[in-house]
Design a protein that fits this description.
two-stranded antiparallel ribbon, six-stranded mixed beta sheet, 280 residues
């Protein structure tokens, strides 16, 4: 089912990027009954696509029905330009308040410390990578994508966020809580793999990639030697002074994107800003 979800998600995003909103809406509506464990995500997509196809009243109704069922959504959806036609409606303001309360209730039930999945190399590790999962996908769902690093002698530590996103899946919505999770992962992961003072890499995909880049640039809560952002939702690069300071620490990075990646333009812009200030 995980592979099926990734395929459907890729299909919807590809149609969206091509401006084929009605076709994307048809896919969402057709596939929603198969993914009853993702009702908030599917209703969010449906509402966005209804707004894009000129049906804001229907979009608001989709969110209203979802809220009546007890659904809640991550805060970032209320900043989505797709939903702009309905965001100033009184009923949406009420839905947002209910969603926020339910989100806080869900967060209260999450573990205090991140659960770790560790992929050790076959030899004593020469470096350690902390790899942050995508929004809505835990360590097990992403581990195979990072396993190749172990062949280069790098121990990979995959923490599961102590935060929850919509539909109860793990997420990195709050930066401060993410920093706390990564701090624990660095300390506990180092003890598990016998890390000591070995070089550290911060890595991640999608939302996890954004957080990895942000923390690497700031040097908080750890100071890695490098970052890796896979189809990362690109963060702001920060001031020129901050970029130069990170480069002076020796920080370097890799940004990986593709021609169907919705975040591609943001990553290209980020790349220009970083390299213009001397970061490799």
């Amino acid at each position: 089912m995980s592979d099926d979800w990734e395929r459907v998600q890729a299909d919807v995003l590809a149609l969206y990027e091509q401006g084929r909103y009605r076709e994307a809406l048809e896919v969402v509506r057709r596939e929603a009954p198969r993914f009853r464990d993702r009702p908030a995500r599917m209703s969010y997509w449906e509402a966005c696509l209804l707004c894009r196809t000129g049906s804001p009243d229907e979009a608001a109704e989709v969110l209203r029905r979802g809220s009546e069922r007890g659904l809640w959504w991550s805060d970032f959806i209320w900043e989505d330009p797709d939903l702009e036609p309905i965001l100033d409606r009184p009923e949406i303001a009420e839905i947002r308040r209910d969603s926020g309360r339910r989100r806080l209730d869900a967060l209260a039930s999450r573990p205090v410390l991140p659960r770790l999945l560790v992929l050790p190399p076959n030899e004593p590790p020469r470096a350690m990578a902390i790899a942050l999962h995508m929004y809505g996908a835990g360590p097990e769902a992403t581990a195979e994508h990072w396993r190749g690093m172990t062949e280069a002698g790098i121990a990979v530590v995959l923490p599961e966020s102590t935060q929850t996103g919509m539909d109860g899946t793990p997420a990195w919505d709050d930066r401060k809580r993410t920093e706390r999770d990564v701090g624990h992962a660095a300390a506990d992961g180092s003890r598990i793999v016998g890390g000591g003072d070995m070089p550290l890499i911060l890595a991640g995909a999608s939302q996890g990639g954004r957080r990895a880049i942000e923390m690497a640039m700031a040097g908080i809560p750890v100071e890695p030697v490098a970052f890796i952002g896979i189809v990362a939702s690109a963060p702001e690069a920060g001031s020129e002074t901050a970029i130069r300071a990170a480069a002076a620490r020796g920080l370097r990075g890799w940004l990986v994107t593709g021609d169907r990646d919705p975040t591609r333009q943001g990553l290209l812009t980020l790349h220009r800003e970083l390299t213009s200030q001397g970061m490799a």
